[in-house]
C-alpha cells in the first residue's frame, strides 16, 4: 500500500509530520491510499487515538482526505506539494511566456513615488497606535470603488490579494468547510484553500465568469463561500459581464449566508467595466491589488466588505503584522493619483497582444480564450505533450495542471511581452504542438 515508504512516529505530531514530509518529497503520491488507522496503530505500537489525531491534523492541513469506508488518501493536489511544482524550467534560449508577469516596460517608475512617500514619513512619522490605513489612500480608493458600484464599507490594507483572501476565509470559516472556486482558476488560491483545512468545490468558468448553474450546485451541496475573479481571471482571462453578474446575484440571493469574496486584481490593466456582486450576501469582501498594474513586488491590496468581516480582519491583523507600511501605502497613493502611466493605454496594449494571438490561433483552427488581462488559455488534448513540444520549439508556456481541478487540459500563454513579430510564429508552433490543421498562411 505504501511501497517502500514507512510512516514513522510515536506521537500524533510526529506521525503527521512523517506523512507530510513524504508527500512534500514525492515519496507519497497524490491519490495514494494510507493504512487504516487501527492497522497503522498496530504497526507503530501506538494507541489508535494517536493515529486518529495525526490523520485529523493532516486533513486540516489539506494533506489528506477521508472518504468513509474508502479510507484516507493523499489529496489529488495536496497543499504540501504546491502547484508551483508544475512550473516549466525555461532554458536561456527559450522564449518565456509561462511566468504570468506584467510587461516591465508598462510599469511606472517607483523611485519618485517612494521618495515622496519617504519625505512625508520624515515630516509625519507613523507611530504605534496610528491609523493602519493611510487616510488619503482610503479616500481615493473609496472614490474608485464608489464609481464602480461597490457597496460602501470600511477599508483595510493587506499584503496583496492572496493575503486578503486568507484573512477573510479565516475570519469566517473553520477546517472542513467547503469553498467554491473557479476551475480553471488561480493556482495559488487552489493551494491556499486546502492549506487552511478547507475543502474545494470546483465551479466551471467561461468568458463571462463563473457558470451560474455550477455555482448553484456548489452552494446547494453545502459550500459556505464563493470566490470570484471579476476581471482578468487567471488563467482564462474571463471577465464577469453584466448579464452574468445578474444571473450570479440571483443565485446568491437564494443563499444569503454565503461568504462572497471578489478579487479585482485586474484593476487599472483592464478596459472592461466592473460588474460587482458585492452586497448580495450578508458576508462579503471585495479586494483590489496593485501587483499587475505597478509591479509584483509592490505587495499591497485594498479590501472592503461588510462590517463584521472588516472588524474581524482588522482585529486579527493587529495581532500579526499590525499594518502594511504606510510608506508603501503613500507610494501607491502617488502612483494612483499621478500621471506616470496611462492605465487606459496599458489595458489597450495587453488587449492588442491577446487579440492578435487569439486571432492567429483561430486562423489555424485553434480555439483560445482571453477576454481581459494578460493571459490566453488554449484547450489542448494532450497538455504534457503540448508543453514539451512547444518547449522544444523554443516557446515556454504554463501547463494547465497548475490551474485546474476537474477542468479539461489546457495551456496558459502569458502575452504581456509578446511582440507583433512573434505572434504568427507562436501560433504556428502551437498548431504544430497540438496537432491542429495546417495553418492558413497569413499575408
Characterise this structure:
By secondary structure, this protein is of the alpha/beta class. 40% of the residues lie in helices and 14% in strands. It is built from 15 helices and 15 strands. Helix 9 (242-253) links the parallel strand 8 and strand 9. The longest helix has 21 residues, at 343-363. The model is unreliable at 438-443 (pLDDT under 50).
Q: Could you give a short description of this structure?
A:
The protein has helices at 12-25, 37-44, 48-60, 111-123, 135-147, 161-172, 187-195, 212-220, 242-253, 291-294, 307-318, 326-337, 343-363, 383-392, 420-434; strands spanning 64-66, 72-74, 95-96, 155-158, 178-183, 199-206, 209-210, 225-229, 259-263, 283-289, 301-305, 375-379, 395-396, 398-399, 410-414. With 443 residues, the protein is of the alpha/beta class.
| Radius of gyration of CA atoms, rounded to a whole number | 23 Å
Approximate strand percentage: 5-15%
Helical coverage, percent range: 25-40%
What strand order characterises the main sheet?
A: 4-11-10-9-8-5-6-7
Distance between the termini: 59 Å
Strand and helix order: HHHEEEHHEHEHEEHEHEEHEHHHEHEEEH
Shape: globular
Total helical segments:
15
Uncertain regions spanning at least 5 consecutive residues? 438-443
- Count of individual beta strands: 15
Structural class: alpha/beta
The major β-sheet equals: 8 strands, mixed
Query: Quick check: average pLDDT?
Result: 91
Which keywords apply here?
alpha/beta, 15 helices, disordered C terminus, 15 strands, 8-stranded mixed sheet, 443 residues, globular
Amino acid at each position: 500500500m505504501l511501497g517502500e515508504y514507512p510512516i514513522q512516529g510515536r506521537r500524533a505530531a510526529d506521525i503527521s509530520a512523517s506523512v507530510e514530509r513524504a508527500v512534500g518529497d514525492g515519496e507519497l503520491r497524490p491519490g495514494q491510499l494510507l493504512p487504516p488507522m487501527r492497522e497503522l496503530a498496530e504497526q507503530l505500537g501506538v494507541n489508535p487515538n494517536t493515529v486518529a489525531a495525526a490523520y485529523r491534523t493532516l486533513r486540516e492541513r489539506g494533506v489528506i482526505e477521508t472518504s468513509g469506508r474508502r479510507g484516507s488518501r493523499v489529496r489529488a493536489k495536496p497543499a504540501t506539494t504546491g502547484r508551483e511544482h508544475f512550473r516549466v524550467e525555461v532554458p536561456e534560449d527559450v522564449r518565456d511566456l509561462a511566468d504570468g508577469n506584467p510587461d516591465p516596460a508598462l510599469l511606472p517608475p517607483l523611485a519618485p513615488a517612494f521618495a515622496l512617500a519617504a519625505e512625508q514619513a520624515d515630516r509625519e512619522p507613523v507611530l504605534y497606535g496610528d491609523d493602519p490605513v493611510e487616510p488619503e489612500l482610503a479616500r481615493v480608493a473609496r472614490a474608485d470603488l464608489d464609481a464602480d458600484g461597490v457597496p460602501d464599507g470600511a477599508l483595510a490594507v493587506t499584503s496583496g490579494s492572496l493575503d486578503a483572501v486568507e484573512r477573510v476565509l479565516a475570519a469566517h470559516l473553520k477546517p472542513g468547510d467547503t469553498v467554491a472556486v473557479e476551475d480553471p482558476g488561480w493556482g495559488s488560491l487552489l493551494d491556499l484553500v486546502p492549506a487552511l483545512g478547507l475543502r474545494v468545490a470546483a465551479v466551471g468558468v467561461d468568458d463571462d465568469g463563473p457558470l451560474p448553474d455550477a455555482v448553484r450546485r456548489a452552494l446547494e451541496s453545502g459550500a459556505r463561500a464563493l470566490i470570484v475573479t471579476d476581471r482578468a481571471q487567471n488563467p482564462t482571462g474571463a471577465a464577469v459581464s453584466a448579464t452574468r453578474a445578474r444571473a450570479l446575484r440571483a443565485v446568491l440571493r437564494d443563499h444569503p449566508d454565503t461568504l462572497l469574496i471578489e478579487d479585482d486584481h485586474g484593476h487599472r490593466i483592464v478596459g472592461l467595466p466592473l460588474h460587482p456582486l458585492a452586497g448580495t450576501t450578508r458576508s462579503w469582501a471585495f479586494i483590489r491589488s496593485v501587483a499587475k498594474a505597478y509591479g509584483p513586488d509592490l505587495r499591497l491590496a485594498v479590501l472592503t466588505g461588510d462590517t463584521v468581516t472588516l472588524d474581524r480582519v482588522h482585529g486579527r491583523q493587529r495581532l500579526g503584522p499590525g499594518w502594511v507600511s504606510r510608506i508603501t501605502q503613500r507610494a501607491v497613493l502617488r502612483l494612483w493619483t499621478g500621471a506616470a502611466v496611462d492605465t487606459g493605454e496599458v489595458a489597450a496594449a495587453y488587449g492588442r497582444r491577446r487579440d492578435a494571438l487569439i486571432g492567429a490561433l483561430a486562423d489555424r483552427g485553434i480555439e483560445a480564450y482571453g477576454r481581459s488581462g494578460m493571459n490566453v488559455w488554449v484547450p489542448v488534448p494532450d497538455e504534457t505533450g503540448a508543453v514539451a513540444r512547444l518547449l522544444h520549439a523554443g516557446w515556454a508556456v504554463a501547463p494547465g495542471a497548475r490551474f485546474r481541478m476537474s477542468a479539461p487540459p489546457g495551456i496558459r500563454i502569458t502575452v504581456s511581452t509578446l511582440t507583433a513579430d512573434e505572434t504568427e510564429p507562436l501560433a504556428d508552433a502551437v498548431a504544430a504542438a497540438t496537432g491542429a490543421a495546417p495553418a492558413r498562411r497569413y499575408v
